Amino acid sequence: MKLKFLMTLTVLLSTSAWAAVPQAERNALVALYNSTDGANWSDNTNWLVGDPCDNSWFGIVCGTNTITEISMGSNNLVGIIPVELGNLSNLQRLNLTLNQLSGTIPKELSNLSNLNYLYLTSNRLSGSIPKELSNLSNLQSLNLSRNQLSGTIPKELGNLSNLRELSLFTNQLYGSIPVELGNLSNLYYLFLESNQLNGSIPIELGNLSDLHYLRLNSNRLSGTIPGELGNLSNLQNLNLGRNQLSGSIPVELGSLSNLQHLYLYSNQLSGSIPVELGNLSNLSWFNLNSNQLSGSIPVELGNLSNLERLFLNSNQLSGSIPVELGNLTNLQYLYLNSNQLTGLIPASLTNLSSLVSIDTRFNALYSNNTAVNDFINARPCWSGNPFCSEDWQYTQTQFPANIQVIASSDNSISLQWDETTYQAHGHYKIMMAENLTGPYSEVYQTSSKNEVMYTHGGLNPNQTYYFKLITDTIPHVYNSNLVTSVESVALSETTAASATPTNLTLTISGVQQTPAQASVVKVPVLKAASLVDISYSIQVSNDSAESLTGATFVHLLPDDLLNVAWTCDNETNGAFCPATNGGGNLNYLLDLPANSSMTFNITGQSDVIDAGGLIIVASIAPPDGYSDTDIDTNSVSVNLDVIYANGFEQ
């Protein structure tokens, strides 16, 4: 009986010794514990107690007598990766993600000949990527993203023929993308975004026939987009945004029938949007914003029935919005702002039943359809953008309304109109012709959109003239394009056979302001730290022997002038002010006896100064039957740049 017990005990001891992992492997784990502050890991259950496999050390998976997996993600490992891990010859998976590991990646990891998965993402690793990792012939996934790795991408990684995932994003890698990566025929994911990579996109990437995700965004890549990318028939996600790519969008991208996300934003792409992109029937996110794309929006985009987000903003697109976009019933976001689009907003957009937000700001669009206007205003653009809280038409470049002839003589015609809703950043152009069908030529450009009167002299008596107005919005901080409205309907007027000469004069004087400290606001516009006091005077004079009844005087206050008050005084030779004081725009019919005058004194404050400063404009026109001998004095314009006490310049 005693002999049988001893034999059994001997067998059990022998079995236990046989099941233990090799000492070198246990030592490698102990080195990991010691070099990464194992005592303070989030979970170090059973570590350093007996055999790693028999005692189930946390995060360790074993095969037969060997370590096959280390899974220590998000476990508060602080320190360096020990070179001893290279002794785990049967390791298949190494996961040290989301810790605080620093130092370099040991080249000894290249000894892990059975390794399938290497995850070191989201640490503080630095230095270069060891080219020796290319010896890991069984590697299927290499994820070194979100570290501080620098240097170039080793071309030797192109030898990893079994690789399915290569994730190196959000590091400090530089240099070009190795053409050898085009040899990774089994690659499914290629994530190189958010580095400092430069040079062109290798055409060899078009050989990656099994690639589903290609993200190269947020680098410094230049050159053109290779048409060979159109060979990636399995591609679902293509992100080349925020680079320095130029040239046109390859028509070959229209062959990517499985593509769901296409991002080409924030590059220098030019030319038109290929109509072939309308073939991408599975596309759900489409972002081309912030390029230099021109031409019209292809009607074929209306075929993208699965589209949820369409961003074409901040380009140079022109023409009208295609009616066909109303077919995109799954669309949630439509951003067309900051282009050169013109014309009527199609009523079909009200069919977009899934739409959450639409942005049409800073174009030359219009609509007289109440249902369309209400639909757009109920789905405003992102509230962090300027003017998104306004009616959508507020920032549209439209020709002025209520264009009319206010005075006519034998040699002059005076026009007046209403200022447009969007009054910043631009001017009106007056076009004139002697025939209704033209040709029309530009005869005057206003100094701002607050100037709403114009007198054209030097005309022939008893002749009909035709006028059209257009509005220009010049490039500004919200749109780098010149946006031009459509032309107004022609207005005709026939000059009189004869008229009495007179001479009206406007003079601006006494322009004053208090210095202001400048501060920066969220949008790139200058803003004074406190309101700036501004004052000026406008004298209206009749410098002729004729007594005038009903001379039209207009001074629309600058947009950025706040808390305005004005007075009228200094009447001479029987002139009579239409009111002694007020607080809004000045638009009056004045009675001015011969050689008389009156003065309007304007005071106000300002805190925001656009690129051109405060533009002060005023105009006067004689009554019907009178012609002015010096039309140049009938209008006045002063550009007031606010002076900042700290020397800040616009």
UniProtKB/TrEMBL annotation:
<dbReference type="GO" id="GO:0016020">
    <property type="term" value="C:membrane"/>
</dbReference>
<feature type="signal peptide">
    <location>
        <begin position="1"/>
        <end position="19"/>
    </location>
</feature>
<dbReference type="Pfam" id="PF00560">
    <property type="entry name" value="LRR_1"/>
</dbReference>
<dbReference type="InterPro" id="IPR013783">
    <property type="entry name" value="Ig-like_fold"/>
</dbReference>
<dbReference type="InterPro" id="IPR001611">
    <property type="entry name" value="Leu-rich_rpt"/>
</dbReference>
<keyword id="KW-0677">Repeat</keyword>
<protein>
    <recommendedName>
        <fullName>Fibronectin type-III domain-containing protein</fullName>
    </recommendedName>
</protein>
<dbReference type="InterPro" id="IPR003591">
    <property type="entry name" value="Leu-rich_rpt_typical-subtyp"/>
</dbReference>
<feature type="domain" description="Fibronectin type-III">
    <location>
        <begin position="399"/>
        <end position="494"/>
    </location>
</feature>
<keyword id="KW-0433">Leucine-rich repeat</keyword>
<dbReference type="InterPro" id="IPR053038">
    <property type="entry name" value="RLP_Defense"/>
</dbReference>
<dbReference type="InterPro" id="IPR003961">
    <property type="entry name" value="FN3_dom"/>
</dbReference>
<dbReference type="InterPro" id="IPR036116">
    <property type="entry name" value="FN3_sf"/>
</dbReference>
<keyword id="KW-0597">Phosphoprotein</keyword>
<dbReference type="InterPro" id="IPR032675">
    <property type="entry name" value="LRR_dom_sf"/>
</dbReference>
<dbReference type="Pfam" id="PF13855">
    <property type="entry name" value="LRR_8"/>
</dbReference>
<keyword id="KW-1015">Disulfide bond</keyword>
<dbReference type="GO" id="GO:0009653">
    <property type="term" value="P:anatomical structure morphogenesis"/>
</dbReference>
<keyword id="KW-0732">Signal</keyword>
